[in-house]
Amino acid sequence: MSPDSPQVPPNPHGDQRIRTDVAHNARVWNHWLGGKDNYPVDRAVGDRVTALYPSIGEVARADRAFLGRAVTFLTAEAGIRQFLDIGTGLPTANNTHEVAQGIAPDSRIVYVDNDPIVLTHARALLTSSPEGRTEYLDADAHDPRSIVGSLRPTLDPDLPIAVVMLGILNFVLDTEVARRVVRTLMDAVPPGSYLVLTHPTLELGGEGNTEAMAFWNENATPPIRARTGAEITSFFDGLEILAPGVVSCSRWRPKPAADGTLPPVVAQYGAVGRKP
User: Fold this and answer.
1) Largest Cα–Cα distance of the chain, in whole Å?
2) SUPFAM superfamilies, from UniProt (predicted)?
3) 133 in Cβ contact with 139 (< 8 Å)
4) What pTM value is reported for the model?
5) Nearest by Cα to 173 from 127, 141, 149, 148
6) CA distance 89 to 82
7) What is the pLDDT of residue 17?
């Protein structure tokens, strides 16, 4: 394997959807998190975005840390044992099942993505605890009905499920379509279920963010858009948004530093809502 090749197992199906000539979100995100599962085109685009928007690496790390805090809360305090993680991306440290099963080994997780490299890598590395279960679904967030129709047997739709959508609705460009995606998913889960969501914004600062998004949309896939806090809040219609609300994901129930300081605000909203 050459130094320019991604450190992922070969796709056993020879999936022709794998494009090595166009940067892809999951692989660029992996690059920002310090991973090796990316191609030269991903690193080139990722580095250019970083040059335009130096905070993007901090956003990626804050988003990942938010996932850990949210899943910890849901497992340890809310008693959730089922997770539907949509748009999971390439595995890194502290994946959803690792956090959940580290607290409750019987937790069950379905990962959803439509990137063949992500799916191949996930199946190779994301192994469940003996007491729990993980499954991997090749599906698109634009087609939520296909997702909710494939939850069994790993997840029981009669029991509460945490629907995890980190940095995925920003790839659903039409806001009303994005709302319908969320409604379809949340209509399919019972009361006591949760929605966990992060989404980029231009409202929380981040010098160069607008230019970086424009560059991304010209040079990478899939295209992305930012949304306002009000738009992101609308995804939680009918749900009870937990404190502290829709905030910078770095400020959602963070653990203060030893001197009491909080992590810096990043241009990525995060929130958790409960279905009553």
Assistant:
1) 52
2) S-adenosyl-L-methionine-dependent methyltransferases
3) no
4) 0.89
5) 141
6) 19
7) 61
Q: With 80 as the cut, is the pLDDT of residue 135 above it?
A: yes
pLDDT category, 98, cuts 50, 70, 90? very high
Q: Is 130 exposed, middle or buried (0-12, 13-18, 19+ CB in 10 A)?
A: exposed
Quote the CA–CA distance of 10 and 45 in Å, as a whole number.
23
CA-nearest of 121, 157, 116, 160 to 139 is: 116
Burial zone of 87 (CB within 10 Å; 0-12 exposed, 13-18 middle, 19+ buried) = buried
Task: Tell me the one-letter amino acid at 168.
Answer: I
The CATH number for 23-274, chosen from 3.40.47.10, 3.30.565.10, 3.40.50.150, 3.20.20.70, is 3.40.50.150
**How many Cβ atoms sit within 10 Å of the Cβ of residue 7?**
11
In sequence order, the β-bridge partners of residue 93 are none
